[in-house]
Amino acid sequence: MSGFGYAPSLRRPQLEKRDRTPLSERRLEADRVSIATGNRAGSNAELAPHRAGGAPTNWGRSPIGHGWLILQFALKDFKIRYTHSALGYAWSVLNPLMFFCIYYVVFSKLMHLDIPNYPGFLLLGIALWQFFSEGTANGANAMIARAELIAKTVLPREVVVYAALANAALTFVINLVVLFGLLVVTGTPITMPSICFPLLLIDLFLLTLGMSLFLAPLYVRFRDVGYLWGIALQVGFWVTPIIYLDLMIPPHWRWIVWINPLARIIGDSRRAVIYGQWPATQGLVITTVLSVAICFLGFAAFRKLQGRVVEHL
Prior knowledge:
Blueprint: H1 14-19, H2 23-37, H3 44-47, H4 63-81, H5 91-110, H6 118-145, H7 147-152, H8 158-185, H9 197-221, H10 224-239, H11 255-258, H12 261-274, H13 281-305
């Protein structure tokens, strides 16, 4: 048995095997057992004062421990994603840039969309959409991806969803660095309205978290949810004003944008960061209320549906 525990031998006492192992590895293994069982006694008196890699041995029960575990899961998944690729972590930058270049050439050079500062307009929309798309896709699959961990430990199940979002957030931070580099190259100034951008990012995170928590237990029970959500994301990309202005939508269809919190986040982010305009206060309030409501409903659905997920893992 591997990962967060070990299997005792029936032929030879386990203590004899552990005595042949370096003390540092014994301490690390004891901490892993403590994490998996949520039991402080997992490392005994001799090993209790030690903290492997700075992680407390009782973190299976504490919020701080959960935060550390979320970070470790996110970093591990981020590293594994690019382990066997020749370009490695460069793909986290190249992937959105390739889509940016394709859409820019098609819609700016071939279709001649007349949108001011279109490079920043487009890359900001792609970066925000990619976080939502990747975060919800990873979050929906999080419980299945760590099915063994959920089935054999007392870890709160929402932790794996948080870790999936943290993994998407690592790529998102890199994309934001690329975005601000592009703004510098294109001479786009960072003005006072940009202080609204962090609030909009919080709204984006709450929206993504709520949808992930709602989808995760449903995906465990009904695997069709994954396919349906993939289709919904493809449709949503074109319905949401990412590569075009919301004013290009016919007036009788603009209500789709108004009730879409992601579209509102992208639109207000562009006004604040790209064009230096203050988003409407009422619009910001509505966006925040919608994001908080979806996050709350996602939590409520997760709490209600998580009870029997182990039966379907």
